[in-house]
Amino acid sequence: MNKNMTGYPSIDKPWLKYYPKAAIDAVFPGKTAWELIYEKWKSHGNTTAFRYMGRRINYSTFFKAVEACAKSLKALGVRQGDIVTLILPTAPETVYLFYAINRIGAVATALDPRLKAAEYSKRIDDLGSKFIFATDISVSALSAISHFPEKTIVQVSPFESCPAVKLLMSSKSGDSSMSWRQFIRKGEVFSDCIDTAFVPGAAAAIVYTGGTTGIPKGVVLTNENFNAMALTQEISSFNLAAGDSFLTFLPPFSAYCLVNAIHDPLYLGFENILIPKFDYADFPKLMVKYKPNHVLAGPILWNHMLGSELTHKADLPFLKSPISGGDVMTPELETEINDFLSAHGCRYHIQQGYGMTEVSAAACYSFENCYCFGSVGIPYVKNVISIFDAETKKELTYDTEGEVCIQSPTMMKEYFHAPEETAAVIQKHSDGSVWLHTGDLGTISSDGNLFIKGRIKRIIVRRGSKVFPSAIEDVIMRHPYIVNCAVVQAPHAEDRHVPVAFLVLKDGFPDNIVDELKDSIREVLPEFNIPYTFFIRKSLPVTPMGKVDYRALERISEECVCSQP
To answer: Does residue 375 contact residue 385 with C-beta atoms inside 8 Å?
Structure first.
């Protein structure tokens, strides 16, 4: 460590040495998300914005579609501050609607199309949303909700580049329906101003957390949050160029998709390849077919690519940013992927990132010029990340494990209608500084690299001792026959809670593999860390973001352990 450093990351900010002075001194302008995109590309209308189902959609088409949608929304009665719900796939219509909603000063929220009618009802009622855009499948679920005739529901088809099948509008006078063209015509006769001036701190979107370790919460993101992320990418990244291609297959109800995979590429001038329906088995095929310069995939998907015959036969020199995020990657997998990328012509390491919905999905990134094995990267240039004692709120020094806390222009405004939950994560410390408490455990090295160790919420208290599931998972993943694993807690009559391990194994695994794993754990961890039981599965449940669904596993483990004698 440099002798001039204090030992505290928030003061030293050692990561700034990797950034040019222009990036450090940059000032972000106050604009809506729509204004940022339009002002950047209004004179470059022929530049490709999207590739979708064999078609290229340029900025001129994109701007016209947003204009038409904005007028139609106004004609339908959507006003500034109204919440408009999108239950749509990753398709151009979704993008048009998001920016049209933003343009008129309304607020967009996207919901998971897999929700049941009761879940839709609760979310939409909590939001107070009266305007809903959905695919036919979701419309069927919505139709089961008795009070939804009071809502305006637009049924959208994801199978063409600029369509919707029909608009279903319900009122006391009875139901009516119209085609997408008729919907657009409602806006063609609308003559009032549709642009709404930028309002500092105004909500742009409400995005729900993934809910892998807790109940999903609505995160309120502002225009400043969206634009700070886009501008941060522009001034911080050293390997980006207009015309690059970006593969977007994650769903729009995630912050990563809306902010990092839609808004950022549009601002940067990428050709954004939109995939409306995605299956994890398709990942290698999409990589070979589209040859994207930039792609984000979770460790599960990168691992899947390693086992694909398609990618084993392919060259990958087109990859400029092979990004991994969502879950922490094991050292073994990171080594395998780096070796694979190198052997197939990619000049770059796997580039890990770290973030959460509460900071607009991304807070730090493993740039090639500061790559550090095992790290999730350095903070973005305008961010400050440090480690604090979770109980005392005292800042810790380098390489000391504690709770990861963040200051960032991309930090959420609040949780929607949840002041107590907001206060629990956005906390003012004794020195007056305000930090977002992530609930993640980690360390920061003296060169500014962040290392994630696990989730505080996932700590298991067994016989009065703390068990760290991530530590057990690290040991298990070293076994040569382990493909994937997850350790969760289950209730127990005597121990209160016990760790339970779920395993995905390679073919031909030894019959005594559980005994081997227990011995391996004993070598490095206390006896009480040995899982109460081990479950062998073909795969682990994952969220649409590709993260292991720990809540689902906890439900499974609770049923299984409780049923045991």
So the answer is: no
Cα distance between residue 195 and residue 200, in whole Å: 15
What sign results for the dihedral spanned by CA atoms 57, 60, 65, 66?
Answer: positive
pLDDT tens by residue, 369-427: 889 999 999 999 999 999 999 889 999 999 999 999 999 999 999 999 999 999 999 99
Sequence-distant (≥ 6) Cβ neighbours of residue 259 within 8 angstroms:
221, 225, 226, 229, 360, 361, 362, 410
DSSP per position, 118-154: HHHHHHHHHHT--EEEE-HHHHHHHTT-TTGGGSEEE
Per the CB < 8 A criterion, the answer to whether 413 and 222 are in contact is yes
Structural domains of the chain, ranges and CATH numbers in brackets: 9-22+269-454 (3.40.50.12780), 33-197 (3.40.50.12780), 459-563 (3.30.300.30)
Give how far the C-alpha of residue 467 lies from the chain's centroid of Cα atoms, to the nearest Å: 27
| Partners of 415 in the β-ladder | 219
Q: By percentage, how much of the chain surpasses pLDDT 70?
A: 92
Would you say 332 and 477 are in contact if contact means Cβ atoms under 8 Å apart? yes
CA gap 273, 61 in Å, rounded: 16
> Which positions ≥6 away from 36 have C-beta within 8 Å?
226, 227, 230, 231, 267
Q: CA–CA separation, 261 vs 50, rounded Å? A: 12
Number of other CB atoms surrounding residue 48 within 10 Å: 17
Neighbouring-strand partners of residue 546 = none
Residue 351, classed as helix, strand or coil, is strand
Residue 382 identity (one-letter amino acid): K
Q: Give alpha helix (H) positions in 291-412.
A: 299-306, 309-312, 331-343
Instruction: Say if CB 139 and CB 130 are below 8 A apart.
Output: no
Q: Which of 304, 260, 243 is nearest to 278 (CA)?
A: 304
CA distances from 322 to 246, 247, 297 (A): 11, 11, 8
Q: What 3-state DSSP class applies to 243? A: coil
Query: Helix H segments across 269-307?
Result: 283-290, 299-306
Distance CA 495, CA 493 (A): 6
Rg (Cα) of the chain, in Å, rounded?
24
Beta-carbon count within 10 A of 267 CB: 20
Return the SS3 of 279. coil
- E-assigned strand segments in 251-334: 271-274, 294-297, 321-324
CA 53, chain centre distance (Å): 24
End-to-end Cα, the chain, rounded Å: 55
pTM of the model: 0.85
Distance CA 475, CA 330 (A): 10
Tell me the pLDDT tens digit for each residue of 438-447. Answer: 999 999 999 9
Sheet with 152-155: list strands edge to edge. Answer: 176-178, 166-169, 152-155, 131-134, 83-87, 107-110, 203-208, 218-222, 414-415
Residue 164: the pLDDT is 42
pLDDT at 161 over 70: no
Question: Would you say 163 and 157 are in contact if contact means Cβ atoms under 8 Å apart?
Answer: yes
